[in-house]
Design goal:
CATH architecture: 5-stranded Propeller
Helix content: 25-40%
Distance between the termini: 29 Å
Number of strands: 20
CATH class: Alpha Beta
Strand content: 25-35%
Strand order of the largest sheet: 3-2-1-20
Order of helices and strands: EHEHEHEEHEEEEEHHEEEHEEEEEHEHE
Number of helices: 9
Shape: globular
């Protein structure tokens, strides 16, 4: 058997480490934002502008020539420096890059001249539409179809002859060996089952072998309204190697209250890879948002850490300012920028769900 990425010294870097580029999939599927599809393009423009102003390249997947022309027009009108944007034509279904692009792992190498360099692998997990939707085959093929154009070294995540299904929004790492995920997302035996028949121990083994983590921490349930059934990036995120932010709900009658309290209790009993305690910082929740009778997964935890800024979703809520202040105190090396996400969250995801970093 070939040595695993972990055995070869590869591990998944934290999101705050330097990126080569941020990937986006230009909005394509109007069913994701019924009645709000046109305004969503301008939100993408705001995202791309904030990332490129920080000096980071943006790579955008488009479906065809007309789709690319539309993206160029919107980005230009939004004030995005198109010299920092590169387009890649590839068929998509929905284009939520966080979940369908590969997880990147790296190791350090020393050249014959004594220079320290990094080597990167693109770990291809199976994307199966969150075990909920039928239109996922193009998105699942994105990594392999893009690879010849960008030079990714693709490694298929397998346990024996079995492919492992995983989405990037379902995990978060501190870059030192600890990974956060939820039982609701990956261990529920009846709802949106990603890996039928796969045990907790086997799933953890896959994470450790392919992502180079040594310490897997399991939270319970995700937030109400999350159609991914428990993605951790709406719930709890690392902001440095020893600190997480955890969304908290003060209203005891809210659907999120008890699950978030339980997750805080779990974190208090957990330890990092070196055995030390986790510093847990409470992040507020916005007031519940509904559209067409549906609870939406509005959460400040769905922020994205780019090279030059942290992009945080805002919801026209008094807690927007509170959350921006908390994150600004935690990220002292780059500004925290609010991106209006009231329309965006109608697609059942916001900034972190749409983006995917490719490490330097």
């Amino acid at each position: 058997m070939s040595p695993t990425p972990s055995e070869q010294g590869f591990s998944m870097p934290a999101e705050w480490e330097r990126h080569k580029a941020t990937w986006l999939g230009w909005p394509l599927n109007s069913e994701d934002w019924p009645g709000k599809f046109v305004p969503i393009r301008w939100v993408y423009g705001e995202i791309a502008r904030a990332i490129t102003r920080g000096g980071e390249a943006v790579h955008i997947v488009v479906d065809n020539d007309s789709h690319e022309a539309q993206a160029r027009l919107v980005l230009s009108k939004a004030g995005v420096d198109l010299t920092k944007v590169e387009f890649f034509q590839c068929r998509m279904n929905r284009g939520w890059m966080r979940d369908c692009l590969p997880a990147f792992v790296q190791r350090s190498l020393v050249s014959t001249l004594g220079e320290v360099m990094s080597e990167t692998l693109a770990i291809k997990f199976t994307f199966n539409g969150w075990a909920k939707y039928d239109n996922w085959q193009f998105d699942n093929a994105l990594a392999n179809r893009l690879s010849p154009h960008v030079g990714w070294h693709i490694v298929e995540a397998m346990l024996g002859k079995r492919q492992i299904a995983l989405e990037g929004g379902g995990i978060d790492v501190n870059g030192r060996g600890t990974l956060l995920t939820t039982e609701e997302c990956y261990l529920d035996p009846t709802v949106q089952v990603r890996n039928p028949g796969l045990s907790k121990a086997d799933f953890e083994r896959g994470l450790k072998e392919y992502l180079g983590v040594t310490n897997v921490l399991w939270l319970g349930k995700g937030i109400a309204g999350d159609d991914t059934h428990g993605h951790v990036d709406d719930l709890c995120r690392f902001v440095n190697p020893t600190t997480v932010v955890l969304v908290q709900e003060k209203n005891a009658h809210d659907a999120n209250y008890h699950a978030l309290q339980e997750n805080r209790e779990r974190l208090e009993g957990m330890r990092l890879e070196d055995g030390s305690n986790i510093n847990v910082v409470a992040l507020p929740m916005p007031a519940p948002l509904h559209f067409d009778g549906m609870r939406l997964p509005a959460s400040y935890a769905n922020f994205y850490i780019s090279n030059g800024a942290v992009l945080m979703p805002t919801f026209n809520d008094p807690n927007d300012r509170v959350a921006l202040g908390i994150l600004s105190e935690l990220f002292t090396d780059r500004p925290v920028i609010g991106i209006h996400a009231v329309d965006l969250v109608w697609g059942l995801g916001t900034l972190h769900c749409l983006t995917h970093e490719e490490p330097m």
